[in-house]
Specification:
Family: Belongs to the cytidine and deoxycytidylate deaminase family.
Shape: globular
Number of domains: 1
Structural class: alpha/beta
Strand order of the largest sheet: 2-1-3-4-5
Keywords: Hydrolase, Metal-binding, Zinc
CATH architecture: 3-Layer(aba) Sandwich
Radius of gyration: 14 Å
InterPro entries: APOBEC/CMP_deaminase_Zn-bd, CMP_dCMP_dom, Cytidine_deaminase-like, dCMP_deaminase, dCMP_deaminase-rel, Deoxycytidylate_deaminase_dom
Protein name: dCMP deaminase family protein
CATH topology: Cytidine Deaminase, domain 2
CATH superfamily: Cytidine Deaminase, domain 2
Helix content: 25-40%
Oligomer: single chain
Largest sheet: 5 strands, mixed
CATH class: Alpha Beta
Organism: Sandaracinomonas limnophila
Length: about 140
């Protein structure tokens, strides 16, 4: 989780900084943080303190979530994420949860609640993953 927190600091997002680490068999297989796709513009540099334009739901129009970036980077480099564990600094949103489930990631460990961050009543992504058999736990530092 320490690595995920450090990765979050690399994000250029002006709203939230999120980091993710995918592990398998005790090895790191991929990392990611939230931000626009590689080769596009960093939100804080291109759009200033207000960040990128918002989409119809009020979310960042350019950003990929940290989980998405970690999964895409692994896939791009030929690493299988099936059976892996995802460490992420913010619990997955419902869209990321569907991707996590579809990619057969078997465990998610998160630091902070997406629902608390967004001010919504429940962690829909966590609920979805648990409903379909993915182990999801909140990280507690020993």
């Amino acid at each position: 989780m320490d690595l995920a927190q450090n990765l979050a600091q690399k994000s250029h997002c002006t709203k939230a900084q999120v980091g993710a680490v995918l592990t398998k068999d005790t090895r790191i297989i991929s990392i990611g943080y939230n931000g626009p796709p590689a080769g596009t513009h960093n939100c804080d540099e291109e759009f200033g303190p207000d960040g990128c334009p918002r989409d119809s739901k009020g979310s960042c129009s350019l950003a990929l979530h940290a989980e998405q970036n970690a999964i895409l980077y692994a896939s791009k480099n030929g690493a299988s994420v099936e059976g892996s564990t995802l460490y992420v600094t913010l619990s997955p949103c419902i869209s990321c949860a569907r991707i996590i489930y579809s990619m057969k990631i078997e465990k998610v460990i998160f630091l902070k609640s997406y629902a608390a961050y967004k001010g919504i009543p429940s962690d829909e992504g966590v609920d979805f993953l648990r409903r379909f058999g993915v182990e999801v736990v909140q990280y507690v530092k020993n």
